[in-house]
């Protein structure tokens, strides 16, 4: 709630983090947008959207003992992906909803973008009030919140049949089981007793079947590192308690601490090849773990405080031990990470780890102890205790009552008030960072930040968008291509175009840092676009063993020369040849990463043609002036026989453009034959038409601002 001129208003929010819907848990209408749209919002531009469908999720009964909020959200993610809630609001209701605490609700709302929804909304009810009381809100603030929502008829959990939703889906909380999700997508849930069998199955399946294309006999192969460590397929190399929401949920954090305590007391230890870390989403976490006496046990198992905020979940785990990375690369081992994050897309967690599983914090600790995903935790002991006895997961798993007994340490109003009442002064190091005076940034020479080219040759009159004629295909990608595939945030390979650029500018390899750290420099980011080490360009032929070539490579046409996508894009630009990109379902899923759209534009891509888009990335493409198209009917890249050596035209967008209009894809093959296919233009609203015709949302907003300014200001621009 906020108060203005004597009136109370409900909070609403758009945020540049795709996990902004976390605050849906306390009844705030909020969703994530790309940084491009947010920048325009800061300059006064409204946010537009088509009126969405609202999917009601009826939660029945309550969670069983031993089942965590993480298990629930992975189940919800699986269910919502099957329901297809992309571009829709999701609202939770029913008696099961009322049984959930706000931290548990936040865990579910937080993953809204991962199950495709714009929001995962919860009501304001008694659980909300309890949370506000426990986190240091004043009595006046709480009374205003409760009174406002009661006056509006919006207080309390919604009962079944009280609202006519666009669609209703049911989920019985009592049927939720302990689970992980992976090894490549958050929606691929696996019950804990089936992890070993699933990994074994996927090990020898093809990439098209979500597998690793390995020989079955290689599964049990063990190798020695140079320093004598024994490792093999399925070994857990990273176990990280990390993420913005799981690590702010006291139920699962205290559960992890209690499990660690029991494990240490029984004499269990973490396997030596496992890199462990603890990165809470809040400073309150370390306070209550310490007060509960659990910190020493987590540290004993190697879960020392590494940072607050995004670490392993965004690829900031740091390197593995050099001998381990070397052995993985030399023997092409499929090793694993287990983390309590939200996303496990290919190469997001670590470039060397091909299997990545999302799990609750207690399960992260459990797999650190097991050391492998090839141990069935339901039928095999975790290890040997200090007296040589078998220790099972049930021996160390904390009970619901044990967790509840520790909750008093977590919900302490004075702690929240002390740590969050004056954030501006909380970190003296931040206030000491030097800044440039004046209203115009001076752009000092740096490989971290550089003046972006998006306003180069800016004029008050937008240039005609031009036509897409005789365009070449820069890349063809499959389903679920994520923004991590398009614009990696992790480590920079020394032999990649970005790595070569840094070395040419006297940056040593140990000082590369990451793409995420260097996203203020377009020269680095455009060289990393479509450069994920696991991305598969379907233009390249299948290998003899059925696997696909990985990495950001393509064929330049008509020469047929294989080269990095960046190099091919620059060659096409120098030749004056436009390019297009093809994809499948759920193109652009994952983080709200503007560089996935900015990099696409800077590579000269005029249009992206796919089966379906994720919400934020489609908006970002329009915001950068790139045309988003969807195939119609049953058409796909495969059904149309597109291989990448064709030239393509797009007819129907040469003159006046209308929202969601039809267009025609004209495919001209090397043998002279021509194929046409209908397309749907995914510029969805009239204002998006304006954005595109102005070359993107930021040029549009700048022209609006300058148009209202005086002649002297326009002349200076």
3D structure, described in words:
The protein is built from 25 helices and 27 strands. Helix 8 runs parallel beside helix 12. It has a seven-stranded mixed barrel. Strands 7-6-5-8 form a four-stranded parallel sheet. Strands 14-13-15-16 form a four-stranded parallel sheet, covered by helices on one side. The chain is globular, with a radius of gyration of 26 Å. The model has no long low-confidence stretch (mean pLDDT 93). With 717 residues, it is an alpha/beta fold.
Number-wise, the strands total: 27
**Please, how many helices?**
25
Unreliable parts: none
Helix content: 25-40%
- Radius of gyration, in Å, reads 26 Å
Q: Describe the largest sheet.
A: 7 strands, mixed, barrel
First and last CA, distance:
40 Å
Derived structural class: alpha/beta
Which strand order do you get reading across the main beta sheet?
19-22-23-24-27-26-25
- Tell me, rounded to a whole number, the average pLDDT: 93
Shape: globular
Strand fraction: 15-25%
Please outline what is shown here.
With 717 residues, the chain is α/β, with parallel strands linked by helices. The strands form nine sheets. The chain has a seven-stranded mixed barrel with strand order 19-22-23-24-27-26-25. Strands 7-6-5-8 form a four-stranded parallel beta sheet. Strands 14-13-15-16 form a four-stranded parallel beta sheet, covered by helices on one side. It is globular, with a radius of gyration of 26 Å.
């Amino acid at each position: 709630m906020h108060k203005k001129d004597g009136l109370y208003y409900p909070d609403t929010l758009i945020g540049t983090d795709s996990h902004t819907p976390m605050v849906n848990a306390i009844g705030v209408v909020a969703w994530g947008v790309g940084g491009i749209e947010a920048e325009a919002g800061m300059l006064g531009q409204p946010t537009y959207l088509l009126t969405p469908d609202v999917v009601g999720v009826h939660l029945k009964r309550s969670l069983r003992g031993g089942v965590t909020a993480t298990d629930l959200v992975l189940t919800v993610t699986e269910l919502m992906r099957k329901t297809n809630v992309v571009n829709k609001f999701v609202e939770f209701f029913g008696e099961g909803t009322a049984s959930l605490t706000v931290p548990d609700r936040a865990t579910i709302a937080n993953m809204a973008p991962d199950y495709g929804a714009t929001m995962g909304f919860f009501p304001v009810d008694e659980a909300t009030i309890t949370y506000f009381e426990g986190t240091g809100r004043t009595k006046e603030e709480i009374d205003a919140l409760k009174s406002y929502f009661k006056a509006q008829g919006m207080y309390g959990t919604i009962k079944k049949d009280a609202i006519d939703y666009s669609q209703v889906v049911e989920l019985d909380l009592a049927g939720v089981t302990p689970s992980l999700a992976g090894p490549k997508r958050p929606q691929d849930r696996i019950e804990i007793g089936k992890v070993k069998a699933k990994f074994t199955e996927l090990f020898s399946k093809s990439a098209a079947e979500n597998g690793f294309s390995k020989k079955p006999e290689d599964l049990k192969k063990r190798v020695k590192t140079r320093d004598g460590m024994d490792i093999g397929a399925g070994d857990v190399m990273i176990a990280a308690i990390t993420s913005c929401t799981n690590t702010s949920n006291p139920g699962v954090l205290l559960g992890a601490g209690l499990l660690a305590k029991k494990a240490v007391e029984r004499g269990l230890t973490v396997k030596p090849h496992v890199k462990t870390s603890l990165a809470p989403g809040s400073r309150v976490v370390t306070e209550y773990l310490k007060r509960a006496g659990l910190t020493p046990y987590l540290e004993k198992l190697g879960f020392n405080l590494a940072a607050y905020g995004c670490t392993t979940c965004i690829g900031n785990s740091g390197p593995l031990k050099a001998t381990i990375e070397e052995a993985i690369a030399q023997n092409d081992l499929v090793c694993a990470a287990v983390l309590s994050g939200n996303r496990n897309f290919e190469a997001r967690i670590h470039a060397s780890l091909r299997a990545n599983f999302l799990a609750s914090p207690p399960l992260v600790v459990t797999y650190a102890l097991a050391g492998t995903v090839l141990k069935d935790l339901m039928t095999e002991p975790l290890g040997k205790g200090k007296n040589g006895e078998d220790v099972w997961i049930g021996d160390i798993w904390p009970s619901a009552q044990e967790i509840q007994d520790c909750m008093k340490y977590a919900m302490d109003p004075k702690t929240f008030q002390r740590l969050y009442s004056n954030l501006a002064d909380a970190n003296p190091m931040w206030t000491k960072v030097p800044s440039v005076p004046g209203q115009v940034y001076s752009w000092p020479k740096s490989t971290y930040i550089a003046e972006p080219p998006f306003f180069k040759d800016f004029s008050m009159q937008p240039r005609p968008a031009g036509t897409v004629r005789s365009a070449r295909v820069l890349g063809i990608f499959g389903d679920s291509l994520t923004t991590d595939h398009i614009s990696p945030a992790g480590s920079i390979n020394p032999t990649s175009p970005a790595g070569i650029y840094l070395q040419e500018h006297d940056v040593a390899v140990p000082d590369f840092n990451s793409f995420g750290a260097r996203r203020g420099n377009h020269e680095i980011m455009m060289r990393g676009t479509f450069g994920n080490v696991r991305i598969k360009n379907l233009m390249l032929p299948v290998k003899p063993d059925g696997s696909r070539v990985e990495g950001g490579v393509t064929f330049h046409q008509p020469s047929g020369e294989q080269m990095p996508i960046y190099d091919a894009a620059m060659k096409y630009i120098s030749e004056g040849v436009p390019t297009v990109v093809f994809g499948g379902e759920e193109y652009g899923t994952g983080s709200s990463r503007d560089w996935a759209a900015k990099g696409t534009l800077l590579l000269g891509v005029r249009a992206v043609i796919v089966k379906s888009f994720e919400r934020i990335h489609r908006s970002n493409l329009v915001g950068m002036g790139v045309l988003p198209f969807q195939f119609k009917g049953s058409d796909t890249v495969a059904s149309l026989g597109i291989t990448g050596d064709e030239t393509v035209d797009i007819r129907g967008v040469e003159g006046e453009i209308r929202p969601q209009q039809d267009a025609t894809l004209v495919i001209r093959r090397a043998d002279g034959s021509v194929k046409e296919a209908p397309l749907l233009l995914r510029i969805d609203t009239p204002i998006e038409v304006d954005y595109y015709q102005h070359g993107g949302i930021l040029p549009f907003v700048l022209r609006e601002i300058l148009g209202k300014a005086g002649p002297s200001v326009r002349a200076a621009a």
